[in-house]
Amino acid sequence: MVLGTIIAAALWWWSGLYKVLDPYLVVANAMPKTAFVPIFYLWLGASLSIYGMSLAISLFVTILMIYSGFQGIDPNKVKLAQTFGASKRQILAKVVLPGSVPTLIATLKVTRACHWSASSSVNSSPPTWGSATSSSTAAKSSDEHCDDRDHDARNSCRR
Length: 159
Description:
CATH topology: MetI-like fold
Helix content: over 70%
CATH superfamily: MetI-like
Strand content: under 5%
Number of strands: 0
CATH architecture: Orthogonal Bundle
Oligomer: single chain
Radius of gyration: 26 Å
CATH class: Mainly Alpha
């Protein structure tokens, strides 16, 4: 999120940079995310490509959301700061960033959900064939003192 915030601040700072990069950001955000999978798979390999995808998805979302939050700041507040002689850096630090805190929090919620879903899909193991039989044999081996008649529906010993 920090990288996305820095890029969004750079886009706010230089309007020419925004005019150049905006079409690419919009297309990259609108593109189906599965289209990036082969690219990240080749660049990063099998294990790191999931983290690269998560970072890329959250980066596009972060840049677009935070930049729109920066643009949503009341222009009268910016004009007031300019009237008092504030530099562009002071306007960013004292007006734009504090005024965008709700957007920053909303972006944090969205990107956290992206990272959480990607990390949970990495950590969860896919079901394997025969997993039910292997768990029943494991339960049976741990409860060897039980007969087959002493097991309940969950395959645990009733004694």
